[in-house]
Amino acid sequence: MVVAMADGTRTRLSAGERRNQLVEVGRKVFAEKGFEATSVEEIAERAKISKPIIYEHFGGKEGLYAVIVDREMDYVIEHISVAISTGPPRERIEGAALAFMKYVEERPDGFAVLSRDSPTKSGLANLLAEVGFRVGNVFTEEFKRAGYDPKAAPIYAQSLIGMVTFVGQWWVDNPKMSADEVASHISALSWMGLRHLPKKPQKAVQPKAVHSRSK
Q: What is the C-alpha end-to-end distance of the chain, expressed in Å?
């Protein structure tokens, strides 16, 4: 595929380079407009190509969107996995929070795509499930070591990931703190809760007994 350069020369993109270009362009358009409002025509226009090229590489809008979502998920999962792979428990928690906040900060278009409704409504849900699973494995190891019930570890892992994700969504519209500051607050809240976690949590308020009246 031949494209014009700024200096008037022309160069040919390989198939891989063309795919990467369309992913970049598509991610920006999907982030701005969402899946439903995005058209193949607009993506092609911004990429300065003809529509058939998109169909040739991705089979259509749905195929391009799926590739973008997969790439974004791989990116954030890889960075969070590295952050929780080593170190003491509190550093792992803060590392996971910071890795996600940095993702929100550095790849806002990607985060917008994952946060929006998709054709299958699975972008953010799949991300949360996969990251929660990986963080859950770390929590399970720590729970076993500390004498806690490891079966409860996924509850706390999902709680942490859910909190980080929704704080990230809020932070996009309220960027008054840096990513590092937000991550520190998240990890402080999480760590204080986990540090004082009872081995068998009890209800703070016991349900009141219901007395039936006999007629």
A: 86
β-bridge partners, 10: 4
pTM: 0.75
**What is the Cα–Cα distance from 17 to 47, expressed in whole angstroms?**
12
Amino acid letter at 126?
Answer: N
102 close to 79: Cβ distance less than 8 angstroms:
yes
What is the H or E stretch that residue 68 is in? helix 61-83
Contact status, residue 109 vs residue 184, Cβ threshold 8 Å: no
Number of C-alpha atoms within 13 angstroms, CB side, residue 122? 10
DSSP H/E element including 60: none
Rg (CA), the chain: 23
Q: Are the CB atoms for 26 and 18 separated by under 8 Å?
A: no
pLDDT tens-digit map of 129-172: 777 787 788 778 877 877 888 888 888 888 888 888 889 989 99
How many Cα atoms sit within 13 Å of 42 on the Cβ side?
14
The residue assigned the tokens 């068998």 is 200
